[in-house]
Specification:
A: 236 residues; alpha+beta; six-stranded antiparallel beta sheet; two-stranded antiparallel ribbon; 8 helices; B: 168 residues; mainly alpha; Arc Repressor Mutant, subunit A; globular
């Protein structure tokens, strides 16, 4: 038995719904990859920078090969041990004294499955992040496992996707859970990794400035909350 | 919402094409505007696609999808950028659809429904649009019947109060 209010409510909801102009179904192809599309605002910027990133990586690789000792190197990609490049890593053991001093930070882009990022669902996945410091692997692996454990759905996308990492303590990627996803930026703060930004839109200029995030992680634009406008961003 | 006797044979494409209008309508009633409704409906479809093997095997795919829709809508995670989008959306006037302009103007409750907190709106939509029972709503929202009852009570009370203020 409905009251007058409830009957009016039923009538109005029906009327709103039946008079709606329903937009066309989005392209199924786009929908199927919609999670990626949602994040394209940010990750797309990275794509535009892909040639530059590749070039930078090649240059850094050449420099590191030049600096590397001629002894046998079991890790062809590795340059100096990562510990030498993150002075504030709390747990990583120091490299031997004869290792070359800290070089320029390296930018590592992950493209594990061709998607432009490495999917991490477990700590084991995180251990496959080539070149990443142990502290980052531990942090991301733990984050991904917490997400997976707490997942109230059976979607395979739950977890973290790492797009790129700078060995001086910055990384960018995406976080997915059953409720959706967002792009995330992580940084070493006070000796530990932490998520400094999460968004589906532009990075905040204020946060980028606060953590001195380099442009090869953040891209070349950010959102100025004070001016309420997008503006260029540049930091080495 | 139609049920699918032969769900195993149903492809996601078929399902999406058939269900999109209904999904969008429900998303609109929840979100209250076209931009967020489209986003919500699309995100729901994405999740349905991700869980398709399970959805298509389900006895009642509609119930599964309804739950995904509600979880997506009620998701507390509103990333910073999303909040910015909503702020802009709130400020910007909703483009009036030619078909909506007439009826909506003379509606008394719908504008107030849009102002209810998300969970109350969800209960209102499930109860008075989808015509679900309290037990069914409790199942969708994963809560007790008492919780549904009290949420619906508060929602109706808010609507009555809003109407009273409007009339006085």
């Amino acid at each position: 038995m409905h009251s007058d209010l409830e009957r009016t409510l039923i009538g109005e909801l029906d009327e709103v719904a039946s008079n709606l102009v329903v937009p066309p179904l989005p392209s199924l192809e786009a929908t199927a990859s919609g999670r990626r599309r949602l994040r394209a605002v940010h990750l797309g910027r990275g794509d535009r920078f892909a040639p530059l990133l590749v070039a930078a990586a090649v240059v850094l690789l050449l420099v590191s090969v030049t600096l590397a000792t001629p002894e046998r190197d079991e890790q062809p990609r590795a340059t100096a041990p990562s510990a030498t490049q993150e002075p504030d890593l709390p747990t990583t053991s120091r490299a031997p004294d004869d290792v070359t001093p800290p070089a320029e930070p390296r930018l590592i882009s992950y493209d594990g499955d061709g998607s432009g990022r490495a999917q991490v669902r477990t700590r084991a996945d995180a251990n496959n992040l080539a070149g990443a410091p142990d502290s980052f692997k531990e942090f991301i692996g733990g984050t991904a496992e917490r997400l997976s454990r707490g997942a109230a759905c059976d979607q395979g996308l739950v977890g973290v996707a790492v797009q790129s990492l700078r060995t001086d303590g910055y990384a960018v990627g995406a976080v997915n859970d059953c409720d959706g996803g967002y792009v995330a930026m992580w940084a070493m703060v006070d000796g530990g990794w932490t998520e400094i930004q999460a968004t589906q839109d532009l990075w905040s200029c204020a946060v980028l400035a606060q953590y001195r995030v380099p442009s090869d992680i953040a891209g070349d634009t950010c959102y100025d909350d004070v001016a309420r406008a997008q503006r260029p961003y540049q930091r080495r | 919402m139609p049920t699918y006797a032969d769900a195993d044979a149903m492809t996601f494409d078929d399902y999406a094409a058939t269900e999109w209008p209904s999904l969008y309508r429900r998303a609109f009633l929840l979100a209250g505007n076209h931009a967020d409704a489209e986003d919500l409906a699309q995100q729901t479809l994405i999740k349905v696609h991700g869980a398709w093997s399970r959805v298509s095997r389900s006895d009642v795919p509609a119930a599964y999808v309804r739950r995904i829709l509600m979880n997506t809508f009620l998701s507390a995670k509103r990333p910073r950028g999303r909040r910015l989008e909503l702020l802009v959306g709130d400020d910007a006037p909703e483009p009036a659809s030619p078909l909506m302009a007439g009826p909506e103007e003379r509606m008394s409750l719908w504008p107030q429904v849009r102002l209810l907190p998300p969970r109350q709106r969800a209960v209102i939509v499930l109860r008075y649009y989808e015509q679900l029972s309290e037990a069914e709503i409790a199942d969708v929202l994963d809560c007790s019947r008492g919780n549904v009852k009290s949420t619906a009570h508060r929602a109706l009370q808010n609507l009555r109060t809003a109407l009273g203020q409007e009339e006085s």
